[in-house]
Amino acid sequence: MSNHTACGALPTRPLGGTGMDITRTGFGSWAVAGSGWRFGWGATDDAESVAAIRHAIASGVNWIDTAAVYGLGHSEELVGRAIADLPEADRPFVFTKAGLVWDPENPTAAPSRIMRPDSVRREVEDSLRRLGVDRIDLYQVHYPDTGESLEYAGDGFGAVSPNATPLEEYWQVMADLKAEGKVRAIGLSNHTPDLLDRAEKVAHVDAIQPPFSAINRSAAAEIAWAAEHGTGVIVYSPLQSGLLTGAFTTERAAALPADDWRSAHADFTTGLDANLALAAALRPIAERLGVSVAEVAIAWALAWPGVTGAIVGARRPEQVNGWRGAGSVELSADDLEEIAAAITTTGAGIGPTRP
To answer: pTM of the predicted model, to two decimals?
Structure first.
């Protein structure tokens, strides 16, 4: 894998001390994973998904985030297909995750959180094969293997871990994979500051990946931890799974199919009115700046000290155009105050209201 991509001129930031300079927005591959598994977004068109990934790369986005569990391997296969024909110099960085293991005999069951060393080593080989790469640029633990149900930030991914592996043990395995050259950098997704402290004593946490948006602001403490430890931060769901695009409506929420995980989630049911009111409050700012509502929402997440980049999904090429420029949007102190006031007024979400 190359150390850069030659395409485009989007602004970049160093991802901690990894040596990778990443664009402020990256392509998220959860939504392209298709249906037939517990956390799918409904049916997708594989050719359109590959086209969306390629369009993002051609637009200058220089990293892709995926996970083994997305589509039960299918998302990684699509990423592999999308980058297979690219010259080395034009290839994006590829980030993926381990630790959510599914039962092939029961694909719609919740995956289990398993970070046993033998399981992780099997997962990394499977991911390398599906992605068609010789090294993963950032390999991340998807969730803590806690041995108990952990509904982190309410997205509900993952079942109870049947046999919990201590964090120190699984983080050492991740460090070993880095030392062996199978992965370039290692990260932790959905881990709280106390867990990050424990991991840092074993090996440096190169990057973290928490959920973070103007609706879900609960990871502010993790982001502050990363800023203090020279750790990169890539946040996921900065658009709160579509709610902050400015295009979502009550009618769309009601029409979500049963095989779209959002149809049963509180953000799209009991919390919908407040969330859509917050999205509407971003529109005047977007109009003043001449950008999309989505770009304002992403820029808000990027404005937090310590945040390196934001993961944004797309299932069709044209959707990329609505967010690719977010890294160049500068929100003023007045803009941030206006958004903070809207968060307070609408009552949307949880967490601090401004950087």
So the answer is: 0.91
